[in-house]
Amino acid sequence: MNNTNLAAARDLIQVVTGEWKSRCVYAATRLGLADLIESGVDTDEALAAAVGSDAERIHRLMRLLVGFEIFQGDARGGYTNTPTSQLLREAPGSFRDMVLFYGEEFHAAWTHAYEALLGGTPGFELAFGESFYAYLRRCPDAGRRFLLAMKASNLAFHQIPGLLDFRERCFVDVGGGSGELTKVILEAEPSARGVMLDREGSLAVARDNLAGLLAGERVSLVGGDMLREVPANGDFYLLSRIIGDLDEATSLVLLGNCRQAMAEDGRVVVIERTISASEPSPMSVLWDVHLFMACDGRHRTTEEVVGLLGRGGFAVERIVDLPMETRMIVAARA
User: Fold this and answer.
1) Would you place residue 160 in the very low, low, confident or very high pLDDT band (cuts 50, 70, 90)?
2) Which residues form the O-methyltransferase dimerisation domain (predicted)?
3) Which domain holds residue 53?
């Protein structure tokens, strides 16, 4: 085997063994190793005793995770957290809920990738015998964990208040989930008012997240179905990571509801991961296939989103790049 083939073989092996690394990160997260290390429990023996395992097995796990720079340190000097492992702790801004949900429900969905891609039924439905959102409605704890996972991964939200003028304006956060976008906007602009719409069974997490703002009557939570109607007279209708779950016809129903409900000079604001038509990034197309595996969704190209908005009766005014292959697309009535 020549050097070119050796390099190709190494690249392929790293790809096909990538799941092993993610499973180790999941295991470390479920064991709570980052929190234990932060508290000073930092040796193989101490970690093993704390989680009810064996020092050698913990050593082998930690050696791997140190090798991938998730943690740092060694068996003799003890382990410390890195900026990456800090994200696995039970702390504000943590990715712990996301890692656990991805490592459990979404992992189960992806084990059916072959059958899903062959037959067209999402992997989640093959794994659980029902659609993703039916599962979340049936299992409230799973629904709560999913909303917390989504909250962790919304890395673009902090930029939104600086990109839109929310002064003395009312916005409607459609399908707002955990309420994190609503919270970020209201904390950044004291004169803004917010309405967050989601299914009644999904509002508990938002109610906890927005407790202080609810007490001040700056925000109201509305239980309902966005495909039936949305709250009226908003200046901005925020659709954050919504249309990726919806097909064309359903997206147009939602856009029609927003168009009918919004104030005369209102805007619809789509915040969504999009795919570059000319140079799609690896992460964006990975998220696209993941949406299919989870709920038969898809990520559109920016041009496809613009076209969708046009067919929904809107004219795009601005497109702004955000972190993590996300774009904010602002549109007014055409």
Assistant:
1) very high
2) 15-88
3) 3-86
The angle subtended at Cα 287 by Cα 284 and Cα 290, nearest 5°, is 155
Burial environment of residue 141 by CB neighbours within 10 A (0 to 12, 13 to 18, 19 or more):
exposed
User: Tens digit of pLDDT for each residue in 232-254?
Assistant: 999 999 999 999 989 999 999 99
Report if residue 91 sits inside a domain.
no
Mark whether 64 and 207 lie in a shared domain: no
Question: Does 59 share its domain with 33?
Answer: yes
Supply 154's token pair: 């919304």
Q: Which pLDDT band, with edges at 50, 70 and 90, does 166 fall under?
A: very high
295/177 same-domain check: yes
The verdict on 137 and 223 lying in the same domain is no
Closest CA to 155 of 322, 26, 294: 322
Contacts of 212 (CB under 8 A, 6+ apart): none
In a domain, 260, yes or no: yes
In angstroms, the CA 219 to CA 170 distance is 9
User: Looking at the predicted structure, is the pLDDT value of residue 1 above 80?
Assistant: no
